[in-house]
Specification:
The chain is 0% helix and 52% strand. The protein is mainly β. A hairpin with a 6-residue loop joins β4 and β5.
Length: 181
C-alpha cells in the first residue's frame, strides 16, 4: 500500500503534530507507527482529525485526536515575606517574589496590588519586572515583584501582595509581615 499523505484537519489541526516510521509504502500484512504530539495554542478543549491518504480501497483512514490546553498557570515563590525589624519611617532592603507562568498560554495580569490592614507600610518598587499595572507573562515565563517595608509606626505590620490574573486560583497572594521599632 502506498502512502501519499499524513495530515491533520478539522477544528484545531495546528495544535497537533506527528512523527512516523511509515515511509512511502507499507508491505502487505505490515504496519507502521504514527506518534501524535499535542501542543495547544489556547486553553480548553482542542480537537482535530488525523487523516492518512493511501492507495487502499477505503482511503483515507482517519482517527480523531483531542486534548485539553491548560492555559496559564500562575505560582508565586516564596508565598510569604518576613522583613527584619525596621526603624519607623525607614525603608528596608528590598525582597523579591518570583511570579511564574508554567502553563501553555500567556498569563494576563490585571493588576498587582498591596492589600490588608497595613498595606501602606509596604511598597512595590519600579524595579519589579512584572507588569504592576497589568500586562502579560509569556508561557512559559516568569517575572519578579520587588517589595519593601517602611513602617509608619511601631509594632507588627501585615499585608499581602495580590496578583489578579486569568489563571485558576486568582488572585494569587504573598503574605507580608514586618515590625516597626
Amino acid at each position: 500500500m502506498s502512502i501519499t499523505g499524513i495530515a491533520f484537519t478539522g477544528a484545531n489541526p495546528g495544535d497537533f503534530g506527528q512523527t512516523n516510521n511509515c515511509g512511502s509504502s507499507v508491505a502487505a500484512g505490515g504496519n507502521c507507527t504514527i506518534n501524535v504530539t499535542f501542543t495547544p495554542t489556547a486553553a480548553g478543549s482542542r480537537s482535530a482529525t488525523l487523516t492518512v491518504t493511501d492507495s487502499a480501497s477505503n482511503s483515507p483512514q482517519t482517527a480523531g485526536v483531542s486534548g485539553t490546553g491548560v492555559g496559564s498557570t500562575a505560582s508565586l515563590s516564596p508565598t510569604s515575606l518576613t522583613f527584619s525589624k525596621q526603624n519607623v519611617n525607614t525603608t528596608s532592603a528590598p525582597k523579591t517574589v518570583t511570579l511564574s507562568n508554567t502553563g501553555n498560554a500567556p498569563l494576563t495580569i490585571n493588576s498587582i496590588t498591596l492589600t490588608g490592614a497595613n498595606a501602606n507600610s509596604f511598597a512595590l518598587t519600579s524595579a519589579s519586572t512584572c507588569p504592576l499595572s497589568g500586562g502579560t507573562v509569556s508561557a512559559p515565563g516568569s517575572c519578579t515583584i520587588i517589595a519593601t517595608f517602611t513602617p509608619t509606626s511601631k509594632g507588627g505590620k501585615t499585608a499581602a501582595i495580590s496578583v489578579a490574573d486569568n489563571a485558576l486560583g486568582s488572585p494569587q497572594q504573598v503574605s507580608l509581615s514586618g515590625t516597626g521599632h
